[in-house]
Amino acid sequence: MTKKFNIPKTVKTVMDKMKKAGYEIHAVGGCVRDMLLAKTTKDWDFTTNAKPPQIQELFPESFYDNKFGTVGIPVKLTGGDRAFIYEITTYRSERGYSDFRHPDDIIFGDKLEEDLKRRDFTVNALAFDGETITDLFNGIDDLKKRILRAVGEADKRFREDALRMLRAVRLSVQLDFSIEQNTAAAIVKNAYLINKISFERVRDELLKILSLKGAAGGIIILRETGLLAQILPELEKCFGIPQKSPKRHHIYDVGTHLVKSLEYCPSDDKIVRMATLLHDVGKAVTFQKTLEGVITFYNHEIVSASIAGNIARRLKLSKKDTEKLANLVRYHQFTVDERQTDSALRRFIRNVKPENIQDMLDLRTADRLGGGARETSWRLELFKKRLIEVQKQPFTVSDLKIDGHDVMKIYKTGPGPLVGKVLDMVFNDVIAGKLPNEREILLSRITNLKKETEMKI
Ligand code: ATP
Ligand code: MG
């Protein structure tokens, strides 16, 4: 197939340089797929018959990653300030996958065919030499039909590398493609093998799925293929847990509500999305039904937070992400009663942390919409306004517009318990609303305090 394609100038330069030196060079994989779908891509990968030292000779600025046998070429796109890395990999064939994840050895090949044969899906096994597309497995046809089909025998390919099953789900959401029947059946059959894959690799794919627009649909596909039961069994258990009960607003079972919430989550942040997906995950274990038929989930937010924390640690999320995830889940049940005192609101802010408040409100929006409620209510709106007001007040002594140095200067003293005591007094006046947090006013208050104590003496 020969057709004019729009490729970046930098891609053309790399390819021309390789060709001029007498080597074969093809763009390959996702970039060719996306080019044919008329999607822009910055991630260009190439495959060649040249060996790494020969590639490096042509590109002095390149670096060689021994582990993957890949030469990286930093390129700067016009107008962009970030350098991108184009990856050139020598044709490869792989032999044997006795552990379901790593090829036993990677062997450099000298034929493009070998290299394309080891790729996961037909639409990812297309190569482009600058003029012609090489399509050995009917990838273009599948691209037109919008389907993901394993290259070769699906069952064998997933047994070779079980991560491909998660990639199938992720790519189907990312591209809005369906998974071809045989390929899908092979995933169902081999879903249990995903446990052979390192948690880090599973995490990366899962987080990618969560950040996609169709994330909720992705969770449904994970469920249908049996992968969800393997990677998030805690969530799988939530499907079928009823919540409908007299005087309760819930219309969905717990699992469906969680997926619906994710669907409506207004945040793009993957941790907020994960928290949304897991916010009620403890309901499967706290479920109780009274004789009158009332369903309760006592302390479910505490149990959910603990389960979410366990999941995050299992998936090797960073400490910071783990804490944020567990914290969002832990406090998602916050009340928005207009009779709450300011100090109750302040406690809420302290628990959630000011930098996570918007994320928590996004989780609430998702929770409401995912439960069939309206996006907001006057109570929630009032609560948001009060949050803003309350945050204008200092939260700790260190938020005051004065500090210990000011106290020492006015009192003409050095560090000591007196300084803390004065600061506490001023702080209490400010949070009680007796004084505004303004420097000049606080300084004169301290001066007065000093005078008052002197008079007492
Ligand atoms: P994305 O748009 O997310 O970058 P991609 O298809 O380019 O999608 P990459 O992870 O960048 O995905 O991989 C590049 C190419 O390498 C794929 O298109 C595919 O040909 C091949 N590939 C990646 N992972 C595997 C795998 N586990 N098994 C076989 N081939 C793979
Ligand atoms: Mg890619």
UniProtKB/TrEMBL annotation:
> Which family is annotated?
Belongs to the tRNA nucleotidyltransferase/poly(A) polymerase family.
**Limits of the CCA-adding enzyme C-terminal domain:** 309-444
Protein's UniProt keywords contain Magnesium: yes
Extract the PANTHER family matched here: CCA TRNA NUCLEOTIDYLTRANSFERASE 1, MITOCHONDRIAL (PTHR46173)
Quote the Pfam families the UniProt record gives: PolyA_pol, PolyA_pol_RNAbd, tRNA_NucTran2_2
List the source organism. Candidatus Gottesmanbacteria bacterium RIFCSPHIGHO2_01_FULL_40_15
- Cofactor(s) for this protein? Mg(2+)
Q: Which Gene3D superfamilies match?
A: 1.10.246.80, Beta Polymerase, domain 2 (3.30.460.10), cca-adding enzyme, domain 2 (1.10.3090.10)
Domain tRNA nucleotidyltransferase/poly(A) polymerase RNA and SrmB- binding, which positions?
A: 176-237
**Which keywords appear in this protein's UniProt record, sorted alphabetically?**
Magnesium, Metal-binding, Nucleotide-binding, Nucleotidyltransferase, RNA-binding, Transferase, tRNA processing
- Ranges where the Poly A polymerase head domain occurs: 27-149
**Would you tell me the protein name for this molecule?**
HD domain-containing protein
A Gene Ontology MF term for this entry? nucleotide binding
InterPro entries, from UniProt? Answer: Bact_CCA-adding_enz_type3_sf, CCA-adding_enz_C, HD/PDEase_dom, HDIG_dom, NT_sf, PolA_pol_head_dom, PolyA_RNA-bd
Coiled coil stretches, renumbered: none
GO aspect biological process, one term: tRNA processing
